[in-house]
Specification:
Strand order of the largest sheet: 2-3-9-8-1-7-4
Distance between the termini: 46 Å
CATH architecture: 3-Layer(aba) Sandwich
Number of domains: 1
Largest sheet: 7 strands, mixed
Number of helices: 13
CATH class: Alpha Beta
Strand content: 5-15%
Order of helices and strands: EHHEEHHHHEEHHEHHEHHEEH
């Protein structure tokens, strides 16, 4: 299947529920020590609005209501060593423990043992079975990415998921037409200065995402600069990357419709501990805002996120609803 795909743009979805999944690479829940954790060193109002007013650290209390949820989930997957993007993201997007399949944590690209699972049963493939439009991957990719893929066939987890599902990867043209969002959120770091797209604020990017999410039951946006900032161990860079994320979330919250739910999660820790250059074994956040929140109450690890998304999209009875208990931290 070609990297660009041949799928036409869909019309406005008639789904009764829509999920906007913001996948944030390399953000765990760490110490409240501001000398180590940039999430503790600065205030991020939109993040804190989603976490009950608390900074996103180990001191933030968990909660689960019908319309909002915050909890920490496991990213270690029962495997020794430091979690990595390849197996962590594959687990998140397939619902299968891909670290155990590989026998180790592996990354940044998918492990060979994960590829058949990604190719047959990833979130984009399975969501298309329960919604009335094709899922959307909102990231725009420059021409050099498509040339790289054609030359190497070295896909990231998310782009391989899309290619396997027939979900079109968006381009610089989509970015110019305001039908996609740059990986850096604002478009300022776009590698092609001749693309002539507008540089936007993070808040505008967030509002663009909610508008795009009106077209499908599932829309996904990936932000990987958080992981890069963690590896850099640079507090100023981390603060800038997190400020853009916070602005994006602000724009989403300001424009989210009653039938749309925002889901935010990560694949492994990193940015929350700038005392080290490597990933961490810390848990990662799961944040849900909107009517889908009740379907995520039992999610306790990366492999549980995809089933919860599908349950919410399909409006099926969740395992939580079949029990009389109220879940943890009620």
């Amino acid at each position: 299947m070609g990297a660009r795909g041949d799928q036409a743009r869909t019309g406005v979805s008639t789904a009764s529920q829509r999920i906007l999944l913001v996948f944030v690479d390399g953000v765990g829940i760490g110490t409240p020590d501001p000398t180590i954790n940039p999430l503790a060193a600065n205030r991020y109002p939109a993040v804190e609005a989603l976490t009950g007013g608390a900074r996103l650290t180990s001191e933030a209390p968990e909660f689960a209501g019908d319309h909002s949820l915050y909890r920490t989930i496991d990213a270690n997957l029962g495997v020794d060593g430091l979690p990595q993007s390849g197996t962590g993201q594959a687990t998140l997007f397939t619902g299968v423990n891909c670290a155990k399949l590989a026998g180790r944590h592996y990354g940044p690209f998918p492990h060979s043992s994960s590829k058949s699972v990604i190719g047959t049963s990833n979130l984009f493939i399975d969501a298309a079975r329960v919604i009335d439009t094709s899922p959307i991957f909102a990231n725009a990719y420059p021409d050099r990415f498509f040339r790289y893929i054609e030359r190497t066939q070295r896909w990231t987890v998310t782009t391989l998921c899309c290619a396997s599902a027939g979900v079109r990867l968006r381009t610089g043209e989509d970015l110019r037409e305001r039908m996609a969002v740059s990986a850096d959120i604002t478009g300022r770091a776009w590698p092609e200065p001749d693309s002539k797209h507008e540089v936007i604020t993070p808040q505008q990017a967030g509002r663009r995402l909610t508008r795009l999410a009106e077209e499908s039951g599932l829309t996904v946006f990936e932000y990987f600069e958080t992981d890069k900032a963690g590896h850099s161990r640079d507090f100023a860079r981390a603060a800038d990357v997190l400020a853009r994320l916070d602005g994006l979330l602000e724009g989403i919250l300001d424009s989210l419709r009653p039938d749309q739910s925002l889901v935010v999660t990560s694949d492994h820790g990193n940015l929350e501990d700038l005392s080290r250059k490597t990933h961490t074994r810390n848990p990662v956040p799961l944040i849900v805002h909107g009517p889908a929140a009740r379907h995520f109450r039992d999610v306790d690890g990366l492999a549980s996120v995809k089933p919860a998304v599908l349950t919410a999209l399909g409006r099926m009875e969740s395992p939580f609803d079949r029990r009389s208990g109220e879940g943890r931290n009620q």
